[in-house]
Design goal:
The chain is of the alpha+beta class. It has nine helices and 20 strands. A six-stranded mixed beta sheet has the order 6-7-8-3-9-10, with helices on both faces. Helix 3 runs parallel beside helix 5 and helix 4 packs across helix 5. The longest helix has 18 residues.
Length: about 375
């Protein structure tokens, strides 16, 4: 098994399926995770992301398909024989051992006698050298999570799996740890595979995100690609908020489609359309919209006849609900930095945006897909 334990390279899942009786948790999934990358599996409870992680770790066997690491097949390799470590949400530290001995545990199991230098380097990396003599119960949640990370990376595995690692931390500490995890990954150069239901967490840390839904990958790409140009309504709604407006492509103008939105014409770049025919949903993120009073000159795409229905001031921005003539309420986020007086409920307005910000989805999609999901909800069950 020496060959397997020293395997390095890209992680490759090929046509992987996992079924439990009649239920298919992961369906014919193929995926390549480049060596040295920070990769996130993102999705709601029950989407199959944790089951995928468990198969990579060796805690579950696929019903079909193969898993390989750098060309070495590890599909049925025992977990302890894989060069893979996992960091869990509950830390899984040994309460009777000191922090030093917790980190040294894996090294000693491998028969390494002189562990001091490696443990101290790991402690330095997570900036907790001064706590090496304490027990886990004497540390805060954030400190325990850093120690769990140090213990996982001290063995220099080919792959580090992160299973909702920040879920038990409060919001402020979670955001701080997101930045630290990203920095640590770049420092050590290991492949990190991070499973989360938290869209902000995935977008902050990962180089590449796979959005999963019902056992399959809806879309794979960089955080910017997924956010700015989602290919399905599920991705558009699960990853942030979107305004999806029913429309019809009525013509072409060079590299753009001309689209009719309830009698009003807009322009849409052809390379940002994922529609299969002329029936579409035009998608615009709330922060891409600009609200203007009726006498104000605007540029780009314009929708007229709006009325402010609701105003919510949230510090850095103000959120508006704007009722359009066809009965749909559009969400608009305006930064509070332009010196423009805020709009009031009942005020008549126009909405404008640059045409390059529009994306188009299939017109037969469920425009509410992904909206009913609660991405911030704490999840305890196997997904």
């Amino acid at each position: 098994m020496a060959g397997i334990s020293s395997a390095r390279g890209d992680l490759r899942l090929t046509n992987v399926t996992k079924s439990y009786g009649d239920f298919t948790a992961v369906n014919d999934l193929s995926l390549t995770i480049p060596e040295g990358s920070f990769f996130a599996l993102l999705g709601p409870s029950g989407c199959g992301k944790t089951t995928t992680l468990r198969m990579v770790a060796g805690l579950e066997e696929p019903t079909a398909g193969t898993i390989s690491l750098g060309g070495t097949d590890i599909t049925y390799t025992k977990p302890y024989q894989r060069p893979i470590n996992t960091v869990f949400q509950n830390y899984a530290l040994f309460p009777h051992l000191t922090i030093f001995e917790n980190i040294a545990f894996g090294l000693r199991r491998r028969g390494i006698k002189d562990v001091k230098e490696q443990v101290e380097k790991a402690l330095d990396l997570v900036e907790l050298s001064h706590l090496s003599g304490r027990k886990p119960t004497q540390l805060s949640g954030g400190q325990q999570q850093r120690i769990a990370l140090a213990r996982a990376i001290v063995n220099r595995p080919a792959l580090l799996l992160l299973d909702e690692p920040l879920g038990a931390l409060d919001l402020k500490l979670r955001r701080q740890m997101q930045i630290e995890l990203k920095w640590i990954q770049k420092e050590v150069g290991l492949t990190f595979v991070h499973v989360t239901h938290d869209q902000e967490e995935a977008m902050t840390m990962a180089d590449t995100i796979a959005v999963m839904n019902e056992g399959e990958i809806e879309q794979l790409g960089s955080p910017a690609d997924l956010y700015d140009n989602p290919k399905t309504a599920f991705v558009a709604n699960f990853l942030g908020q979107s305004n999806l407006i029913k429309g019809t492509i009525t013509g072409n103008d060079g590299d753009n489609h001309i689209v009719d939105l309830f009698g009003q014409k807009i322009s849409l770049a052809k390379n940002r359309s994922h529609a299969v025919d002329n029936s579409i949903f035009a998608g615009i993120r709330p922060e891409k919209f600009r609200i203007s009073r009726l006498a104000t000159a605007t540029s780009g795409n314009i929708l007229t006849g709006g009325k402010i229905e609701d105003v919510s001031y949230i510090g850095v921005s103000t959120q508006y609900q704007v009722l359009m003539p066809w009965g749909q309420e559009l969400m608009v986020f305006e930064q509070n930095d332009d010196g423009v007086a805020p709009f009031n409920v009942g005020e008549d307005v126009n909405i404008s945006w640059e045409s390059g910000f529009t994306f188009a989805l299939r017109g037969d999609e469920d425009a509410e897909a992904g909206m009913e999901v609660e991405p911030e909800e704490t999840i305890d069950d196997d997904e």
